[in-house]
Amino acid sequence: xxxxxxxxxxxxxxxxxxxxxxxxxxxxxxxxxxxxxxxxxxxxxxxxxxxxxxxxxxxxxxxxxxxxxxxxxxxxxxxxxxxxxxxxxxxxxxxxxxxxxxxxxxxxxxxxxxxxxxxxxxxxxx
Length: 126
Description:
The protein starts with a helix and ends with a helix. The protein is an all-alpha fold. The protein has two helices and no strands. Among the domains are: 1-52; 60-94. The chain is rod-shaped, with a radius of gyration of 50 Å. The mean pLDDT is 86.
């Protein structure tokens, strides 16, 4: 019976020893995890501490970009209108420019008579 009690006591001691070792390992793991979480919390705190300023700066940048975009849109609209007017002017020039006689220079009445005589002579020769 004494051997049985000693054996049982030894078995209980070994089980307790095994339990203590597992608790130590778990404690070490929890310590590492707690340190990692603390570092993460500190980093997140630093990021969040600076975030209102960063958000404000971002909002200002967005407003500036929107203003520039609107100015560019206005300039594009004006350029399109100008190109449309130029196209219309070109079309009108082509339509009505062919119908009007082309003047070479301003001439005196005497020069005009000489020209008309020269043209009449050329016509008579042909």
